[in-house]
Fold each of these.
Amino acid sequence: MSTKQRFICRKFSLLLYCMLLFQVSGAQNDFGKVDNWLKNNLEELGGRAVLVIYKDGKVVYTHSENGLNKRQKMVAKFVAKRQGKDQSEMTEDLEPSSRLRIASCSKWLSAALVMTFIDEEKLNPDDSIGKYLPVMTANGKGNIKIWHCLSHLTGIKAGTLKESLQEMKEIKSMEEAIEKIAGQHMEGEPGKTFHYGNVGLQIAGAVIEKISGKSFETLFAERIAQPCDMKNTDFGKGSVALPAGGAFSTANDYLNFLVMILNDGKFNGKQVLSKSSVIKMQENYAKGAKIISSPAEAGSWGYGFGEWVMEEPNVRSQGVTSPGLFGSFPWVDNERKYAGFLFCFNLKSKGRNERYKELKQLVDEAFK
């Protein structure tokens, strides 16, 4: 073979290699169907949505879709006026750095914060809350355990999620919040009665405040937000933190938290949570419990500590999530080793569970 022929063969081989490499990488990260899903579902998502996906050590997908219709703009302006907010906050385009209230996505953050105390052996999941909060014992609730609080299994009767949040807004201190909870009736046996709401995490928040002598807001900043580089995430900085639904965050910030969970509690080389705590959070503690109240968008999912268990082939779930009242949907897929966060704002919940599953399936397929 002549020198010229060898040169031509090498060029052809290099070209063929590049074409094959492009085909493989394209097949592994084909998000075309995901793009279309966001466009087709934008109205149901509230007219504004951001989706971010992380895999193999990097963000592999970021997409913002914005298109509020006239009705949605009117509703957004009405909500802004009612809540005393700037109208632009409710109508401007959503980007990965935009900051909004994330409702029940807060639960995952709060449960993780409580688990940092368990990692340090300052708290035990089997501890009774009466050990830290005498008012609960005085009202016959001291035997409720910490793990009951993290999994909505306290057995304490509570109003709807909306009613509970409204009541909490009027409370001026954590002590006042706990006194109110202590006086509520029981509706079932602790550990055997599931009622999705705000009560359990509020109690758990009060316990870690008592142990540390610091506010919930300060503890979250020190133990979760700072080590996970969540610079724009907090619990509203009001008179009393609402661990079950009071957080504000951005798509970028919350994805950092999910990356920490995906990496068995480690973020940027720092162990924020122990691997054992991450696994413990992902077990289904609601299995066999009497279901008093569960949101329709959760479908048949089980519940761990601050998060829903989407699939449960073994002890550790393949997929976990903590969607919020306003439509945001964070998830971690332990089997396929990736994390995603759909960030949006919409009060309309009909069909959410089906949409969440459909979106996740499309993202799963993008990695095949």
Amino acid sequence: MSGEISEGQGGIPRTRLPAFLKSPETRALLAELYGPGDETFTVQEKRYTALADQFTQRFGATAEGLRIFSAPGRSEIGGNHTDHNHGKVLAASIQLDCIAVAAKTNDNCIHIYDQCYGEDYSIDLGGDLSPVPGETGSAALVRGIAAGFKEPSLTGGTPFIPGGFSACVESRVLPGSGLSSSAAFEMLIGGILNVLYNGGKLPVEKLAAMGQYGENKYWGKGSGLLDQMASGAGGVAGIDFENPSTPVLERISFDFSSRPYALVLVNTGGNHANLSGEYSAIPNEMKNIAAFFGKEVLRGITIADVLQQLPALRSRCGDRAVLRALHFIGENQRVDDEIKALKENDFPRFLSLVQESGDSSYKFLQNVVVPHGDSREQNIPVCLAVTEAFFRERRLTTGVRRAACRVHGGGFAGVIQAFLPRDETEAYTAWMHSALGYTGSGPSPVFVMSIRPRGVVEVTQP
């Protein structure tokens, strides 16, 4: 399927990969990405080696030129559903990632084999890169990202010419969970093209815009830039979307790994797959409120503005739209307050703000239950209630707050997020296993996360 692998492009020959992975420099990088410890390293060593073997089987051996790339999933901490109305977000990259073993080709085509989904496709970069009717999924995203490299409006004025490569891809970012598996894949593909053909010149903000371009124009998904920016940036980052074409990225120098707290995500059992209408309704209703004030988005509208016009807004836009607007306004301020609390090392205050954010999403944004869905199925509220019961049982919110929980990401289905002391994670995991009826068969619904300090990265250049 692929073109001949180009030689002499840097990277690691397959025969040298075991020694490379075991080198002190690579082990240090893998510890940054996935956490310390021999067991963690062994898991990733086997994972990378297996993917390199898959690449060799599908695309043939190359004397040199194997490149390994990683792009993380992301966890949203604050700013729930604000980016699409030019708001502010606090997010973090996590250790669950999407990886690729790749090498340049000389045929000007991108060849992808996705190990997780069994997808096998090629994109001809020399042909028309316009959207192809009927093309869906990751093939459409790759085509859109490649087209984005040729768009001066996305690259900052100078179009780049993408070239061919072959890649085997594998992902540990849970699909349909709100951890942004699609954004991790998009940043992975953009990162490969950026490194192989543009000397890594394009910043994260531009690569994120290309990922969004692929989703919006080629996949038909009206997403903002939050997911791509958070995946690409690494660490904890505040992102201000007041000017969405040039969002302001602030990396927050707060080392979660040095604190006695864990970020835990719980897969509640729902799935995002068929909820596009529910997600689209949120920005649309917020923008209806903005239109009442003669604006396109809510940014700049105050609570006083809304309260002054409340009867007219309720009549014209509906109560839910009003509540969602109030969430947006309060959430924007909370992001600033969360960043301030982290900078001042006031973790109890930070946890209180995380809980406030979750309460606002539940009560005002209303993205924890699917509207008009089966009322018997309320996965996220049940898991939040069970988590808060654990907090009470362990006295984690008595006196100085030591824990918080909230809906994670888009909501309606998928994942909740909890911050709690690291020495409580084993008890919390057992508590949630019991509540969810987990018997040990299959993957656990509870994931203890680490926040990785790097976003999209080439592993073969530590």
